[in-house]
């Protein structure tokens, strides 16, 4: 559906520009925006490579494992059935730890593994369990200790201080994660 909407907007914009005699402005805009997009993407890819390297060093140094050890007791209180299974809990902890450290590419396989493990524990096959729904919410609203993507976009866009969003990001994502847990627990009682 979104493809249709974008197509209509583009056709309408280009058609309007041509009908009003501004075809040259339309073509200049297309060329300049294409050039600036390529420039932005090249900057962004370079910065993302740097951040992925930094996060790999954090992973290899054991920082993510230490964070996982801190998270495990808290998550055992939050998850009901998955807390009883070491494989499911391990995958959940590693997924959330990787997300917290900005390693979203590394988090994806752990997220898939966590869902598979929770599905193995699920008594109603084909229906998401409460733990699965809660994990999905926590995965989407995960606390970001290092918001690498946003930092990279800000730096590539020429921000004077791309890191100034770290503290607000930690606060906002922490509130989102806590509210997600609270709403999941409330909804679990009624559905």
UniProtKB/TrEMBL annotation:
Protein keywords: Membrane, Transmembrane, Transmembrane helix
Transmembrane segments: 133-153, 165-187
Transmembrane found in the keyword field: yes
Superkingdom to which the source organism belongs: Bacteria
All copies of domain Nucleoside transporter/FeoB GTPase Gate, residue ranges: 41-153
Designated name of the protein: Spore maturation protein
Lineage: Bacteria, Bacillati, Bacillota, Clostridia, Eubacteriales
């Amino acid at each position: 559906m979104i493809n249709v909407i974008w197509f209509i907007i583009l056709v309408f914009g280009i058609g309007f520009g041509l009908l009003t005699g501004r075809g040259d402005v339309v073509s200049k805009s297309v060329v300049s925006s294409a050039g600036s997009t390529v420039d932005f993407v090249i900057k962004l890819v370079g910065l993302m490579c740097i951040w992925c390297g930094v996060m790999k060093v954090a992973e290899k140094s054991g920082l993510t494992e230490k964070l996982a050890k801190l998270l495990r007791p808290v998550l055992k209180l939050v998850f009901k059935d998955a807390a009883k299974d070491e494989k499911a809990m391990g995958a959940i902890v590693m997924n959330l730890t990787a997300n917290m450290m900005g390693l979203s590419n590394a988090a994806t396989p752990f997220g898939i593994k966590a869902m598979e493990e929770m599905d193995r524990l699920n008594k109603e096959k084909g229906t998401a369990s409460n733990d699965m729904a809660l994990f999905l919410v926590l995965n989407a609203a995960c606390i970001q200790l290092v918001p690498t993507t946003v930092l990279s976009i800000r730096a590539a866009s020429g921000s004077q201080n791309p890191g100034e969003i770290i503290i607000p990001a930690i606060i906002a994502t922490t509130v989102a994660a806590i509210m997600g847990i609270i709403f999941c627990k409330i909804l679990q009682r009624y559905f």
